[in-house]
Design goal:
19% strand; binds zinc ion; single chain; two-stranded antiparallel sheet
Amino acid sequence: MYSVPKLKSFSEAALDKAVEKLRAALKQEAAAVKNGAEQKAFRDRWMARKDGVLTEINDLWLKAAPKDAKRTVGQRVNEIRAIVEGAVKKAEEIRLHPATGPSSRAPSDALDITLPGIRRPLGSEHPVIKTMHEIVSVFRNLGYSVQEGPVIETDYYNFEALNFPPNHPARDTQDTLFIANQESKPQRDRLLLRTHTSPVQIRTMERMKPPVRIVIPGKVHRNDPPDASHSPMFHQVEGLAVDTNITFCDLKGTLDHAMKALFGSSVKTSFRPSFFPFTEPSAEMMVSCFICGGSGKRGSEPCRPCKQTGWIEILGCGMVDPNVYGFVDYDPKKVSGFAFGMGADRIAILKYGVDDIQLFFNGDVRFLEQFG
Ligand SMILES: [Zn+2]
C-alpha cells in the first residue's frame, strides 16, 4: 500500500516522479473500491484530516520544503488535492449509481426492469368517424358496397354531371374553394374541393352497370363561416340504388329501416317535398325526435334539438333525375333509382348531445376522450 515518501530533492523532476507514483497508487486503490465500507475507508485513507495521505503530503512535502521551493511544492500539493478529491467523489458515485459508472460491469444499455414504463395512452375512434361507420354498417347489412372518391374534384363531377349546369342558381348554395390559376382550362376540368359526396355516384355509375347499390362516406367542403352548427369542412354519408323498377316506396322503406337501425325501433319517419338538381322528385326526410320521443318537451323544459316540433330534419333524398343517367350512359327508360345523403357531423351532434360542431375539429383531447 502506498505511503507518502519523504522527498530528498524538491526539484521539478523529483516532484514529477513523486506525483506520478502517488497518482498510480490512487488509481489502483480507487479501482478496488466495491462497496460502501471500502469507499469510506478509501476516502478516509486519502482525506482524513488527522492522518490521511493529503495531510501527510502537507507535512512531509510542503512543510519540509526549503523556502525557495515552497511556491512550486504548494502548487503541486493543490493539484494533488484536486485529484484526490475527484477520485474520492467518483468512487462514491460509482457506489451509488453502479449502472452509470465507467468501471461498472453493467453495460450502459442494460434493461432496468424496476424503472416505471412509458405510458402510451390508447387512442379512440373520433365521434364523427364512429358515427360514419355506424351509418355505413346499416347499409352494408342491406347489401350496399362502400365507394370512395377524390376530395379534390373537377367541376364536371361535382356539378355538371349532377345536373347543375354552369351558372345554375343551385350552385350558389354550394360555394366552395377553387384551386387557383386554372383559368386556361375549360370550366368542366377546373378543380375544386367537392361540396358533396355525390360525384362518387357519377364515378361509380360510369364504371358499373346496374344494379348499383353503394354507400359513400367522405369529407366535403363548403363556404360556410364556422359557427355552432356550420363548419367549412364536414362529413357526409350518401347512398345510391339503381336497378329496374325501383320506386319511391323502396326509398321510403329503405330509409325508414335505416333510421330505426340508427336511432331505435320506435322512431318514425316523415317526408316533405324539397329540391335537389340531381333528384326528381326530391324530399327532405325527418325522424321523430329520439331525444324527447316526439313530444317536443323534456319534462317541463322545451326540447332544443327538435325546436319543440317533435321532428328532426335528418337527410335529403329523392329519385335520381333522368338527366343524370344521360351523363353515365344509363337508359332512363329501363332503370330507376334513388339517392340520399346525410351529414355525419350533424347526426353525431344529435346522438351525443354536443352543442357545437367546432368541438369535433378543435382536437381537444379532453373533449374527444369522452367518446373512447
Ligand atoms: Zn325533441
